Amino acid sequence: MNLKDIQILLESFNLGVRDGRVFVKRSGLFSSRASFFMAGMGGSILAAELFRDLTGNNFQIIETYSLPKIKDGKDAVVFCFSYSGNTEETLSVFRGAEKLGIKTLCFSRGGRLKKLSQPKNFFEIPDFLAPRLAVPFMLGVLWGIFSKGSVPFKESPLPERKRLSTLIGQMKNKIILVYSPHSLRGLAHFWEINVDETAKQPCFCGEIPDINHHDLASFTNKKFRNRFFAIFLEDNSFLNNRINLTAKFFGKYLGIDSVIFKISKKNAIRDFLSQFALIYALSFKLAEINKIDPFENLIQERLKKELKKR
Fold it and tell me: What is the mean pLDDT of residues 255-284?
């Protein structure tokens, strides 16, 4: 995937806003008192997590088989996201919501989810080859559903080749750590999923300040230090000093290189989309270096088949 392809993915955000507004008119407007539950797994749920981070909406994210206890189902809406339409955890949540008479909105390419949902409440996702690549579009869809203002995105700068080259050199053959404040946990998850699935390199995310109380201790074992590279996400909050100090400790006392990315509240959409571009470019280049297929997912499919036997 080249930078031109990535730019097309970013521009799909605006298309998503348009389609989201059409969809909400078709499926019916929500009560002002409605509570929202977002169900999905892996790359399929990323857009909901990122939208929550961007807007501060108190959506409950469901990444398991069942709904939490809901006091009043009449004012609840369950969003079910499954790129394939066959994710068993999401289908289980859908069936649970239907039994309780809770309104469900479904988003997928097709599959079982399309067959089970009501046509007016189903949104067919265009083909993006993989759930993680549909994120800019689906983020736009959610923006179109929930936001009435003008489209907030005009352009987002692609990463500079020099910076890409530097980061690739730092990340190559490393286990990647992504640390963020709670407000950017969705973006950290986006890093994790893309590096894991596209580059096939282990990537783990954690939250600051929590990681200061345990992760730091693990890196005092000198046997493992040279295996890691750390990415810190900063949100211009009171935690900035702690984030910068933690990054300093990683380098000075633990010998682990790191980089800090700043996300501004004023230009959050632009900064998120810029991060998407960087992450896509890095993960596909790392896949090329690692000589692996960025779209191969045989191990996940094998696990799913084994689970069906039990």
Answer: 94
